[in-house]
Amino acid sequence: MSLWHGAKARRAAGAALAVVALSISLTACGGGDADNKQNAGASSSAPGDEKPKEGEGDGGTTVPDTSKTLATINGSNGFQFVIHTAIRDEGGFLTVTGTIKNTSGSDQSAPVQWNGSESQVKRTGRSLAGMTLVDKAEKKRYYVLRDTDGYPLTTTGISRIDGGGSEAFFAQFPAPPSSTTQVDLQLPLMPSATIEIS
After folding, report:
1. Among 69, 136, 141, 142, which one is most buried in terms of CB atoms within 10 A?
2. What is the pLDDT of residue 48?
């Protein structure tokens, strides 16, 4: 009889613990609904950008400033990367923006190599986490930054681009020293290109 009561007490204690854990987790997730509703339609954009960008509409996508071209990278697979900006900010970050174009006449799948080879970013889905910057003067390579959950701070979800179509992108890196004015941008399956940092 005492075994029966002990098992019953353990079940009751376990249920009470589960209720407490659930209520704490729901409390931690609650609040701030007004802010969440405003950001519910947001898509990939550079973190910390408070001001609306030129070309940003109701769709929530950001269009890079295409008035400048720092480099054009042509791949043998029909993809072309046009790099528009590489801007260093006060927070110690460098944000690269550009446009990916499918110059072929047919739909193309984005190569999985663009995702990067690290197991942490492979599990996060399609991205441009394989992009790197090389500072030849300092002899350092910079990788796309990750958030606390391991997601790369770059445009995600590009799996296919229609023939003749294009997609805007961004990628955020740690900023090289202020003395560095040029870096080589590298992406798997594409030739590298030297870009100016502003």
Report:
1. 142
2. 45
Distance CA 146, CA 116 (A): 12
Choice among 61-70, 103-112, 119-128 with the minimum mean pLDDT: 61-70
Domain CATH number, residue 150: 2.60.40
Cβ(45)–Cβ(171) below 8 Å: no
Element (H, E) at 137: none
- Residue found by looking up tokens 């441009």 in the block: 128
Please name the residues in contact with 183: beta carbons below 8 A apart, sequence gap of 6 or more: 86, 133, 134, 135, 136, 142, 176, 194, 195, 197
- Which domain, by its residues, includes 163? 71-196
pTM, full prediction: 0.66
Report if residue 133 sits inside a domain: yes
Per residue in 98-119, pLDDT (tens digit) is 999 999 989 999 999 999 888 7
Task: Choose among 197, 159, 161: nearest CA to 179.
Answer: 197
User: Whole-angstrom Cα distance, residue 69 to residue 72?
Assistant: 7
For residue 86, how many other CB atoms are within 10 A of its CB?
24
Q: In this structure, is residue 32 part of a structural domain?
A: no
